[in-house]
Amino acid sequence: MLKLHGDAKNLDAGRAVHLQMITSGYHRDRYLCNLLIQMYGRCRSVHDAIAVFHTVSRKNVFTWTILIVAHTHNGLFFEAVELFREMDVHGVQSDEFTFSAILEACSNLGLAFLSLGKTIHSRIHQQGLKLTSNPTVICSTAMIDAYAQNGHIEQAAEIFERMQLQVLDPDLIAWTAMMTAYNQLGHAREALLLFRKMDLQGLEPDRFAFVAAIDACSSIPSLEQGTVLHSRLLASSVECDGVVGNALLNFYAKAGLVHESRSLFSSMKVKNVVTWSAIVAAYAQNGHHEPAVELFREMLLDGVAPNKVTFVSLLFSCSHAGLIKDLARGRKIHAEILKSTAAAGDVVVATALVNMYGRCGSVSDAKTVFDEMQHRNITSWNAMLVTYSLNQRSLEALRFFRTMLLEGEGVKPDAITFVSAADACGMMGDLSRAVEIHSRISQSWPSNQTDVVLGSALIKMYGNCRRLADAAQVLDQMPRTNVISWTSMILACEQNEDNEAAIRVYRAMQLHGHKPDPVTMVTVIKAAANLHDLKRGIEFHAQAAAFGFATSTVVGNALVTLYGTSGDLQAAENVFKELLQQSVEDVVTWNSMLSAWNQNGLPNQALGTFQRMLHHGRHPDKTTFVNILNACAGDPSKLLQGVKIHALAAACGLDSDIDVANTLLHMYSRCGNLSRARKVFHALTQKNVVSWSAMAAACAHNGDADGALQAFRGMLHGGIQPNAVTFISILSGCSHTGLMDEAVSYLYAMSSDHNLKPTVQHYACLLDLLARAGKFHRAEELATHLPNPVAWNSLLGACLVHGDAETAARAADTAAKLQPLDCAPYVSLSNAMSTGKNLKTKLNYFQ
């Protein structure tokens, strides 16, 4: 009866039997007391088990062992170890079952108790407990688990091999334990090899062995071996229950086969929280974020309470979907987490919340979650650090990094910590801080031990600080390099506008035996595009195809940009069409083609491509809107289309994005609608230098010089430093309204007040102003100090307006000498001659 009630976990019935034993006088019998302790342990009433234990006058090994097992099965591992030590003090010799139970406790208590586990293993051999019985096999299996739990795979494998050398081979449980150990410690291939060896031994796998093998296929991942295992499982007598089904769900999800995951899910009769969490994770991990959220709703309607895994998968979807509504959705999930006893306060879930808020751009929410965490680990600290870096809060990221070093509750920075800190330094371009971070990394990892992740981060950091020599030195000193480290160096060169160096590093990488990956090809193709080098671009296109990247979307997008930049629109369109044949879903592909049309002055083709994109059901992103609004800019006849696109941007929630708003401002300005431009400008809650410069340009372009100057003053009042583009707008406004003194004053202020060096475009505005005022001699004198065809062509254009053929002749002559292949000066001169003034000068020029 006691065994029956213990198996059924029926505590009330067990207590009734105990009462009958007391009234009948059997409560002193040691054998029955041992069964009582076992029953109470199985019914999760450890305090009752302890009470019975103390009534036993002569406790034997079974009495002690049963109480130890009661503690381990109820998660009281430390108390189990204390009982074991007390048992030793009382001189009771342990047997295989005692050792098995205490090894389970040691494996769950972590590294601090691993030495005790090793001592127990030695005692097993000292007591002569040879592997001749199943209990000893169980004991060794527990030892395998203990070593695996604490990361010692070599010792676990050694015990397993020793078992194989004994008279009795390991049983199925031992084989499964060893496979599980390999899986837990990232040795999935070894787990599969062990499964094959088990087959050769003639052992028929049970559901747990199948699960271990399927988990290994998920980790590799190996679609072929996983599907073979699934087929074999279906042909076997093993029932495809929840445990096996969940493992298969996870396997198909990791393999990217979401449809198969859904079919399997639908066929499962019993769906528990693990099953639901697995299917939600399957969709989330493979980028199907909306279906993941819908499945979560179905799960709640089915009455299944979500667990930690469910919430982490959902938060991942909110973090990566890229939709404007994801922050609101994330907050709703956060509210559900607070209601859940299984997830509230969990460090993994809280860290996922920090990541979600960070990726959705809400740094304040992320910091609130982080501050409220009762327990933090290195992953939590890193999540907050990455949040700052991801949201361009570099200074705060570095301050947080220092806080972590000082107040990190014993948390030691890892590679991810230093990578995030290096990224923050790079974004700031702060060399002194970069050197400090490098020094800290060197203290933790000497240069001969720096791994490729840290080395690549340092290369990127120095590249962002415009220190290519330092980046190259890091690459040279790395003990081991791979395609990532070399690509980081290529990218550093390309970002620093040393595109020739980028191509040289690319070739050196191949000489060192590293095959480029798609990211490498994208970077080197971009370098060729920056150089407008169509020949080398075609070479890299051929190499990308040879390396098997012909179907890569990211490489294809880079090629569209290359051909668009180089003016080969036929080639750009060919690549674009090939990409659409594979998939119409990638918005970057559409954006690349839109940009190609714009760069080559073909706005109608850009608008046509945009309509096709909408027809295919693609959602425009901010880059799409920037491209298509620029296609409308400059042509008043496209104002209505621009207004419609503005409405679409508002419907997508992107009209308030700073880049889109600045482009809207530019579009309305170039289409001659200054009032709409002003409305967009005033609606901006945050204005950057581009916003103010665009407003100044809008006023200047539409003849409102006072408005341009007012925008400039408002910009300074707001604490925003103007840039070179701002001054072109201001000088252009002065030029159109004849504000000579103001123009000279602003040109002087560029260098004296704002540390900006005037370019030929700025001087061209002043030239135009002088010419408009009829001061051709001063304009020509200024142009003499600017040996650039732009300046002389500007002077020539002014002469065209005012009919000064003599100055026009000299300007055309100088411009032609500076740019011999450009016929524009001669065309301008011909226009100047048609005014009929100063005929003698014209005839002399032609002679």
UniProtKB/TrEMBL annotation:
PPR repeats lie at residues 60-94, 136-170, 171-205, 272-306, 346-380, 482-516, 586-620, 688-722. PROSITE patterns: PPR (PS51375). It comes from the Eukaryota. Pfam families: PPR (PF01535), PPR_2 (PF13041). Keywords: Repeat. The keyword Ion transport does not apply. The keyword Transmembrane does not apply. This is Pentacotripeptide-repeat region of PRORP domain-containing protein.
